[in-house]
Amino acid sequence: SLNCVEWSLLPPATPEMVAQAEKVKGRFQGDPSFEYELTDLSTEDLERLLEDGKEPYIKEEARLVATIDQIDRAVGIIPRGAFVKTPLGSVHENRSFEGLSLTEAKKLSSYFHFTEPVNLKNKTLLEKADLDPSTDFLDNLEGDIPQGKGS
C-alpha cells in the first residue's frame, strides 16, 4: 500500500528477485518504489542485467517479496499426516486428520517443512524403508539446525 487505505497483493517471488535481494543488506526504507543499488554483482551478472535492458537496482517492493518468500520457506511447517500424497503424485489435505497425539506432538520428526523436499532425496534406501510414502514425502524437522545470527 502506498496510502495505508488501498491494498494490493504482492507479486510472486522469482529466483532472480531472491538472488538480487540476497545482495542487499540493511533495513527496509518503507517506500515500495525505493531502489537499492546492487553493488556486489559479478561482472557476468552485471553484463546479463544490462543485456536484458535492466539496471543494477532492485526496488524495495521486489526485495520485500523475496524476503517474505524466504521466511515462508524457512518457517512453513505442517504436522505429519495433515497432507497425503497419492500414488499418482498429487498432494491433498487429509480430511480424516484429527491432529497428533500428545506423544507425537512432542517430536520434531512429527513435523515437516511445507516446501519441496531437499534432505529426503539424500536419504539412504535403508532410511527410506521406514518411511510411509503417503505421509513422509517432505523433509522433517528432526535434523534442522537453526540458522541466523547466533551467540
Automatic annotation (TrEMBL):
GO CC aspect terms: axoneme; kinocilium
Any single GO BP term: axoneme assembly
Cellular compartments annotated: Cell projection, Kinocilium; Cytoplasm, Cytoskeleton, Flagellum axoneme
InterPro entries, per the entry: RSP9 (IPR055316)
Keywords associated with the record: Cell projection, Cilium, Cilium biogenesis/degradation, Cytoplasm, Cytoskeleton, Flagellum
Top-level taxon in the UniProt lineage: Eukaryota
UniProt similarity note: Belongs to the flagellar radial spoke RSP9 family.
Protein name: Radial spoke head protein 9 homolog
Underlying gene: Rsph9
